[in-house]
Design goal:
The protein is an alpha/beta fold. The N and C termini lie far apart (44 Å). It binds ligand LPXRUNBV. Pathway: Purine metabolism; 7-cyano-7-deazaguanine biosynthesis.
């Protein structure tokens, strides 16, 4: 079985306010790496001509546009973080740079949300591919690897279909601005 494996770097800031780590309650940033593993929905033999699953460029272009244009330098916050209200009142022009999550934006959660988002892209593009594994290296010494169905692990705060990670667009929150 083949897998296409793509890695992208991005910078981010976040804070964790629900008690898992006091030091992480202060806004701080990381340079992270996300690696995705794509498989064919209907695996077959190579065709003897092009001999590709899908050209790399085609498989990764929307995903990398999302990471570079939406995730890179976004501020990741829990949806109920008071800083969200602060941005609404004081810097509404930056609301589009907030990546909002159901509870704290840990690496475990963003791994699930990013996999769901990537699978939305791959599905709408009828790519014949799906992502079944993702790794996010939050720091050079801490990596989270997720395999499985992200919907089984994402906290269920509201109807799944209304959430940004199930929309095949560049959104990183469900705010209206
Ligand atoms: N299970 C998780 N634990 C923690 C997460 C997380 O996403 N999932 N995140 C953090 C913080 O974001 C923190 O900034 C990173 O953790 P830390 O171990 O402090 O990172 P270091 O690179 O400083 O680790 P070293 O051991 O010094 O290499 C905390 N926990």
């Amino acid at each position: 079985m083949f897998e296409l494996v793509f890695t992208r770097r991005f910078s981010m800031a976040h804070r964790l306010i629900h008690g898992s780590s006091e030091i992480c309650a202060t806004p701080h940033g990381h340079n992270e790496e996300v690696t995705v593993y794509l498989k064919a929905l209907d695996p077959g033999s190579l065709d003897g001509k092009m001999n590709v699953l899908t050209p790399f460029e085609k498989a990764k272009s929307t995903w990398h546009r999302f990471i570079d244009g939406s995730v890179d330098h976004a501020f990741q916050l829990s949806e109920n973080d008071p800083l969200v209200e602060w941005f609404k009142q004081h810097e509404p022009q930056r609301l589009s740079r907030l990546l909002l999550t159901p509870g704290d934006p840990t690496t475990e959660l963003t791994a699930c949300l990013f996999m769901a988002k990537l699978n939305s892209f791959l599905s709408i593009e009828r790519s014949g591919l799906y992502c079944d594994q993702i790794e996010i290296a939050e720091t050079p010494t801490n990596t989270v690897r997720f395999t499985g169905n992200p919907s089984d692990f994402i906290p269920k705060n509201r109807k799944d279909k209304d959430c940004w990670w199930h929309r095949a667009d560049m959104s990183i929150s469900d705010l209206h601005f």
